[in-house]
Specification:
A 5-stranded mixed beta sheet has the order 2-4-5-7-6. A two-stranded antiparallel ribbon has the order 1-3. It is elongated, with a radius of gyration of 27 Å. The protein folds into 2 domains: 1-156, no CATH class; 161-309, 2-Layer Sandwich (Heat Shock Protein 90), CATH 3.30.565. The chain has 9 helices and 7 strands. It is an alpha+beta fold. Helix 3 (24-48) packs antiparallel against helix 4 (52-114) and helix 4 (52-114) packs antiparallel against helix 5. The mean pLDDT is 88. Bound molecules: adenosine-5'-diphosphate. The site of adenosine-5'-diphosphate has 22 residues, from helix 7 and helix 9. Adenosine-5'-diphosphate binds at residues 211, 215-216, 219, 243, 245-248, 256, 261-263, 266, 273-279, 302.
């Protein structure tokens, strides 16, 4: 299947945004054909002429053709790498520039709601609240984009500190409780009081836990059940979250940690989401020396787990 896709040059060119003759598969085919041609030509020439000079000249010609094509391929790769770097820099600059005005919108709307709401009507308060919610959502997206850029450039710096996992889970759950209640869901945290210390970056692990819990809330219909547990296993703290939500179709499970991936069964009803949360979570956990894994069945539910080294 992959080979057939690779040979669809038109589709590949569209996906990569380049002309057909610049696609990797086209260049690969040309290299293959040149090699076949070069070998046949060398064979024919060396059979017809006994003089070594002629053979040397013929081989020199063939080598220079192969060298020129190789050079063309390298140029294309350089161009793609440069464009990729430029794209990452653009996303990084744009995200940084967006953060300040977004923070200002959030502060101002919070100030209005907390201190100045006396002179405002209910309708006005509701509008300000909506602006605040949307600005918060946009801040999260901008932060995700910044994290992804850092991960792709290998510039994501994680602190190495002692993280009290039970405390971190409790803090995140407390913040997300209104969402859980709004969907009339039941959330259980097992071993909430157990002391399990992991070595990682506290803020980033909070983000990982928040992403996983938010997913379980988002992808479980109302009156669902979420169960979180912490345990220790062979030098690792293991976090698990189980839900009885919509699950992930079997055929799409291998793509779940890819950037911007969202499964077909959820895009219809859950429009909020970027497909970046799991990619970021996996990168953070793996950079901390742990791993992420999951089991899921469509219409039954999912269990997401991650481990971190014990400290
Ligand atoms: P987002 O939630 O923003 O779409 P994520 O990277 O967090 O992005 O998740 C990627 C995709 O994985 C989701 O769009 C969804 O299809 C699937 N997914 C993740 N967690 C769950 C879950 N608990 N239940 C069902 N599907 C999930």
């Amino acid at each position: 299947m992959k080979i057939i896709n690779d040979l669809n040059l038109k589709k590949q060119a569209e996906n990569l945004g380049v002309s057909i003759w610049k696609t990797p598969s086209f260049l690969f085919i040309i290299v293959g054909l040149t090699n076949i041609f070069a070998m046949t030509a060398t064979f024919i020439v060396s059979r017809q002429y006994n003089e070594p000079e002629v053979i040397v000249v013929a081989e020199g010609l063939v080598v220079s053709i192969i060298f020129s094509i190789g050079n063309l391929i390298i140029q294309q790769i350089e161009e793609v790498t440069k464009l990729n770097k430029l794209k990452s820099e653009f996303v990084s600059v744009a995200s940084h520039q967006l953060r300040t005005p977004l923070a200002a919108i959030r502060w101002e709307t919070e100030l209005l709601l907390s201190k100045l709401d006396k002179g405002l009507s209910d309708k006005q308060c509701k509008s300000i609240n909506t602006i605040n919610i949307l600005a918060t959502r946009m801040t999260r997206l901008v932060n995700d984009l910044l994290d992804v850029t850092k991960i792709d450039q290998g510039k994501l710096i994680l602190r190495k500190e002692r993280v009290d996992m039970a405390e971190t889970v409790s803090e995140v759950v407390d913040v997300l409780l209104p969402l859980v209640r709004a969907k009339k869901m039941n959330i259980i945290v097992k071993k909430r009081n157990k002391i399990l210390m992991a070595l990682s970056d506290q803020e980033k692990i909070k983000l990982v836990i928040e992403n996983l819990i938010t997913n379980s809330i988002k992808y479980t219909k109302t009156r669902g059940k979420i169960e979180i547990s912490l345990s220790k296993n062979s030098g690792f703290v293991v976090f698990s979250i189980r839900d009885n939500g919509v699950g992930i179709p079997n055929s799409q499970q291998k793509e779940i940690f890819s950037k911007f991936f969202r499964s077909d069964n959820i895009v219809k009803y859950q429009t909020e989401g970027t497909g970046l949360g799991l990619y970021i979570a996996k990168s953070i956990v793996e950079q901390s020396g742990g791993r992420v894994w999951f089991q899921s069945r469509e219409d039954v539910g999912s269990v997401f787990n991650f481990s971190l080294p014990v400290v």
